[in-house]
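Notebook, student rotation project (T.W.).
Task set for the rotation: take a protein with a known small-molecule partner, predict the structure of the complex, and write up what can be learned from the model alone. Partner molecule chosen: manganese (II) ion. Sequence and SMILES entered below by T.W., checked by me.
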Amino acid sequence: MGDHLKFAIPDEALSHDEALPEHGDEPALREVADPEIVILPVPYERTTSYGVGTGAGPEAILRASHYIELYDEELDRDLSGLSLATLPPFTPQAVDLGVALGELQAEAYRHLSAGKFLMTLGGEHGLSSAPVKAAQAVCGEIGVVQFDAHSDLRDQYEGSPYSHASVMRRIFDAGIPSLAVGVRAISGPEMALVKEHQIPVIWGHELATAESRFENLLAKLPPTVYVTFDVDFFDPSLVPATGTPEPGGGFWNQTMRLLRMIFERKQVVAMDVVELAPISGQPASDFVVAKLVMKALAYRSFAPQTR
Ligand SMILES: [Mn+2]
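Predicted structure of the complex:
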């Protein structure tokens, strides 16, 4: 098992024995010993509040990745040469959320300080402050691009400062500038914070015509960025399998244009894809999210840089 799979699932990532698809002579992604890209599954779910199931997200993404074709027609490139390795799932052990996120931050730091591009697969959005802070420690000045239906700027939620609903507040508190895209669910206090600090946001209702404004706002971020992608950014007609769906989200092609622009214009050091909560018998969400991961890796490796 292993090398014929697309994101090369390590045995430890599989929760039970299941016959894996046969692919005959189909080219596989190389899983290399010293990869440029490391994929870190983090089935972390501690603070979900509405729908649950993000802990099963990483495995669903890896399973769906079997079915992605490896020729990217947009970039006109064969993706089988991507240099990547998928690590065993990382599960923080500490009960205390702050300590648990510290464990994840140390794990992320280990890969980023070795010069790897880190793709973290969640899990809930509450995990993202850990790899973001690791990226800040390694790179110094960074910015964060947040794809999300929610602003996630609450100081606390349900008693926890480490909630998925507070993750961007923790990043804001760390002095890291951010650009949010697709937000269409926000509380009064969060909006007050956005206005007081002029945090740039492209709202959900602005998505259809967002490209030039996105380009301008992106240019104001530091040259080095981290991308955090909450899959509830997508319209729930495209990705229903998420804990807190909101109508009015992003569709595929417009999203790919924005994502590609980030990789063309910025030095992207790491990305996470979080909040997939798989629905049994509905594989479309899993596949969309796996393809999102693959497109990001393709843009990172093959999109022409215009920085
Ligand atoms: Mn979120």
